[in-house]
Write a structure and sequence with these properties.
This protein is an all-alpha fold and 302 residues long. The chain has twelve helices and no strands. Helix content is 79%, strand content 0%.
Length: 302
C-alpha cells in the first residue's frame, strides 16, 4: 500500500496545484487555454509517437489485450443503452452520462503507469490508447447525437481530426515500418513528452469546477461509482477469464478505472449536451479518483 501511495501522491499533488494556481489567478485564463492547446496538439502527441514507436506490437499478449478492451467497451455500452431506454434519457443527457462512464483522463493514466511500471508499462499503455481513443471518441459523438439525423462525416470528422489519434497512426506507422526515430528525433520527442504529463495534470486541476458538484448529486455519485469501481471490477473479471498476463491485465484495468476526460466538457458543449452535468461529473470523478485509484491498484495481482 505504501508503494502505491508514494507513486500516486505526486500525481494528485500536481492536479491540486493546478487548481490552486487557477484560483489564485497568478496566470490569466488565456494562459490555461494556451497551455492546454500546447499540450493537446503538440506535447502529448509527441509522447504518444515516442511511446508507440517502441511499443511491442508483435507481443503475443496484444490480441488478448485488444479483445479485453473491445469486450469491456461493448458490455459497458450495452448497459448504457439499457439504462437509456429504461429512463428515457434524451441525447443531451445520455451523451454526457456515456462520456462519464466510458472516456478517460489520458494524462492521469499515463502518469500513473509511468510511476508504477516505467517505460515498459508506457509502451503497452500507448497501445491501449491507440485502441481505446478512436472507439470512445466515435461512441461519444454518436451518444450525443442519439436520435438525430447524423451523416457519417459528422461522426468520423471529430475522430479523424483528433491529434491523439493522428499521433497514434504516426507512431504505429513508424513502428511497423521499422523506420523508428532516427537522427536524435527520439531524444527530441522524449524531451517534449517529458513536459506533457506534468503540464497536463496542472491543466486538469485548473479545469475543475467544484460549483457544479451542487447540482445532480445523485446522478454524479452513481455515474462516478459505475466508472471508478464497477467498471474496473468488470474488466478485472474479464481479464481473469481471458487469462491475460498480470502486467497487461493490470494496465487495461487501470485505463478503465480512470476518471473521465476533461475534454468531454468541450465536446458536450459543442454538441448541445448538458455541459453543467458534464462539468460536475468530471470534477466529481477526478476528486474521487484520489480514493478509488489507490484501492484499484492495491487489488491488482502483482
Amino acid at each position: 500500500m505504501q508503494g502505491v501511495l508514494l507513486a500516486l501522491w505526486p500525481i494528485f499533488a500536481l492536479i491540486v496545484s493546478g487548481f490552486v494556481l487557477q484560483k489564485l489567478r497568478l496566470f490569466g485564463a488565456e494562459f490555461w487555454v494556451g497551455a492546454e492547446k500546447l499540450n493537446y496538439f503538440f506535447l502529448f502527441p509527441a509522447l504518444l509517437i515516442s511511446s508507440l514507436t517502441l511499443a511491442p506490437f508483435f507481443s503475443p499478449d496484444l490480441p488478448q489485450m485488444a479483445l479485453l478492451i473491445v469486450l469491456s467497451i461493448a458490455v459497458a455500452w450495452a448497459v448504457l443503452q439499457l439504462l437509456r431506454k429504461r429512463y428515457s434519457w434524451p441525447a443531451t443527457r445520455f451523451g454526457v452520462l456515456a462520456q462519464g462512464a466510458l472516456r478517460f483522463n489520458t494524462y492521469l493514466g499515463l502518469a500513473v503507469v509511468a510511476a508504477m511500471f516505467g517505460k515498459d508499462g508506457l509502451a503497452l499503455a500507448a497501445i491501449i490508447l491507440a485502441i481505446k481513443v478512436p472507439i470512445l471518441n466515435l461512441l461519444s459523438v454518436w451518444a450525443l447525437a442519439a436520435g438525430k439525423e447524423v451523416r457519417i462525416q459528422q461522426l468520423l470528422l471529430p475522430v479523424l481530426k483528433n491529434p491523439l489519434i493522428l499521433a497514434c497512426v504516426v507512431g504505429i506507422a513508424l513502428n511497423l515500418s521499422e523506420v523508428g526515430l532516427p537522427l536524435g528525433s527520439d531524444r527530441f520527442l522524449s524531451m517534449l513528452g517529458a513536459a506533457s504529463l506534468p503540464l497536463g495534470l496542472l491543466c486538469v486541476g485548473a479545469a475543475l469546477q467544484p460549483a457544479y458538484l451542487l447540482g445532480e448529486r445523485h446522478a454524479l455519485l452513481l455515474n462516478s461509482a459505475g466508472k471508478l469501481l464497477l467498471l474496473p471490477c468488470l474488466v478485472g473479471l474479464l481479464a481473469w477469464l481471458l487469462q491475460l498476463p498480470a502486467l497487461a491485465g493490470a494496465l487495461v484495468v487501470i485505463f478503465f478505472a480512470l476518471p473521465t476526460a476533461p475534454s468531454a466538457y468541450i465536446l458536450a458543449r459543442q454538441m448541445g449536451g448538458d455541459s453543467q452535468l458534464m462539468a460536475g461529473i468530471i470534477t466529481m470523478q477526478t476528486l474521487l479518483a484520489a480514493l478509488s485509484l489507490p484501492l484499484v491498484l492495491m487489488l491488482l495481482p502483482s
